[in-house]
Design brief:
Blueprint: H1 3-22, H2 27-30, E1 34-41, E2 47-54, H3 59-68, H4 70-80, E3 88-93, H5 96-108, H6 114-117
Parallel strand pairs: 2-3
Antiparallel strand pairs: 1-2
């Protein structure tokens, strides 16, 4: 399968999964503000990894809720997407949002002085290192 087609399917899968998850009635999923961050479908369309993040709720309970609702989600996905084979879904927690928030708090806590900001210009532009292009002249 062409790579661009697989990318289009991945993007469409993310959009449809977001819509479908709004309709899931399992309280472990509906009350956790689950967000689909990415989808990776295998080239043969048999398997799909769905990456998600959630703002609330216990991580294990959200994962159990998604696993319990995977049959309904797959059925809805088959009805909405025009694919020959509906992929088998596996849900993976995406920690990148939490990691980004952690890095942001670390960066916000940093302080620096003006001495650290100014570069040392006493050595010139090339930093006094050999290889500034004048050896061959």
């Amino acid at each position: 399968m062409a790579r661009y087609r697989q990318d289009r399917i991945n993007e469409e899968m993310v959009r449809e999964m977001a819509e479908i998850l709004r309709g899931v009635k399992d309280p472990r999923v509906s009350q956790s503000f689950v967000t689909v961050t990415a989808a990776k479908v295998t080239p043969d369309l048999k398997y799909a990894k769905i990456y998600y993040s959630s703002l609330q709720g216990d991580k294990k309970e959200v994962e159990r809720g998604l696993k319990a609702a995977s049959g309904y989600i797959r059925k809805e996905l088959a009805a909405r997407m025009n694919l020959r084979i509906t992929p088998e879904l596996s849900f993976l927690r995406d920690e990148s949002v939490a990691y980004g928030a952690h890095i942001e708090t670390l960066l916000a806590g940093l302080t620096y002085t003006e001495e650290e900001e100014k570069p040392d210009v006493s050595e010139g532009q090339d930093g006094g290192k050999p290889g500034n292009g004048e050896e061959g002249k």
